[in-house]
Amino acid sequence: MAPPPRYSPDEIARRLAALADARSNNAMEGLYESENDAVLLDAFARGEIDRAELDWHLRVDLRKKMALDIDLVNPIHHRKGFIYPGSFGSGRPNQPLMQFDHISKWRDYLLTLQVNDTRVPGIHRDAYHDALRILLLAWVEPAVVQSAEMQALRSLEGALRGVYFQRLYEKERTRRHRLKPENFKPGLRQVLSFMSEHDDLPDALHSKSGRGPGGALDTIRNHLAHGDPLNKLPCGGLFEGVRDVIVYAYRNHPESALPQSQVGGMQAFD
Questions:
Q1: 3-state secondary structure of 28
Q2: Domain-embedded: residue 218
């Protein structure tokens, strides 16, 4: 006898509608899942597979593609001295400067910065992990650090829009009644401030006053985007901050894996 369905017809209809809405929101950002992932996500929405099965299939596919491969760097450069700014707080290095003497140790630190929470859609996870791939190459060319930082902040902005776009849009429409969704592009500061006011974002992650360790993400983003000539040093704690805000934003979204192209962590290759 076939097992009973996981969800009622009404619940399945609701889940499929949520998936359609998520795909529509991602399409506005130019993001689409692969054909294989679309089949898996549809099956998950209908209750034909559970979260563990979905995660397993998508992790297997992802591990064939994603890696922080230290062999991208010539082995003659693998061992040397390398210093990178640290930061303080829970889950952070808790030291002002970190020292590495081999690229494998640098790679291992970068792996601690990845987003492992499966509630975060893989589209946004992939965008953030691209920043870590760029940052790996700072071992041989420090000039790429700012490119990695900018990519991390771009991924943060996209990830937060995925959660808060509709609520921000509805709020803005009370002031601009003719505003269309495709013409509304909330910036990073606007989204972070909304999170502080309406979603209890801790001051340690973002402070509207601009003071303290959480006051800098949108400021750093603006400095990078507009070419601040005095902004040349790496920003300690930036990647930890971006990771933590992304995970915080999706903490109440158990079905946020629906609109993703990939799910999973980054794999280390020696």
A1: helix
A2: yes
